């Protein structure tokens, strides 16, 4: 029995909850995964997994074994890296998931530089505004601009992302310019409704915090759509500054309520919890920090006010 291969198969089944998905990630057939698990259970004399036709979950013994197996595989990977990384360039497949707007507007223009630095890497970039599962979907690193929920994943903060309230000159001429957050209750709002706060907006000024439940006419999970609809005069939008910057410069959007600020989001690099970060993931995250982490916020608009690792629990 190949003990290491069996451990890898077992860990992938527990992480993904599926023999078929574990096989896809390891590029093995379902029957091969089943044989590895069966050999492992036979050698130990215990059942490690509860199985149904569609799902697999660890038994009590299996959960304890899984936690130790993750450590063992991490140590093996670290040992391999210790004797190879100093002599070799990163190579192999790096799978990255990123939000659509950030991917097209900010990440895309710099990817060629990363590829120039590490030509032996294959980079697979999946752009999606859906909250894909980094583990089950097999990503090495996932980029998120968000308020992160607690999880077992590791999240490294790259840079804060400022947000501002804005609307088109045409909309403001027809409906008036809000002077106080409470005025937003009388305006049509265009909202990104997939944050932890739901559709509520929090704006903070000298007179404290204001939580607003806007009367929204559009709710969408892509900020470029919000920007484009706001430019057409359909309402007030709370937008990441890097999304709105060009429209602000051209005068297609005007910032309002500038004495108030929304809590900034942040760009995070999220990856599975292993004790030793793989070289290709570390280099990619370091590249992001170098390119995007130099400014205090992303970006700084000319007419306006112009990374630490943490484990989420």
TrEMBL record:
It comes from the Bacteria. CDD domains: PBP2_CrgA_like (cd08422). One of its GO terms (molecular function) is sequence-specific DNA binding. GO terms for biological process: DNA-templated transcription. The keyword Transcription applies. Pfam families: HTH_1, LysR_substrate. Keywords: DNA-binding, Transcription, Transcription regulation. Residues 1-59 form the HTH lysR-type domain. PANTHER family: HTH-TYPE TRANSCRIPTIONAL ACTIVATOR TTDR-RELATED, HTH-TYPE TRANSCRIPTIONAL REGULATOR. Belongs to the LysR transcriptional regulatory family. NodD regulates the expression of the nodABCFE genes which encode other nodulation proteins. NodD is also a negative regulator of its own expression. Binds flavonoids as inducers. This is LysR family transcriptional regulator. It comes from Bradyrhizobium neotropicale.
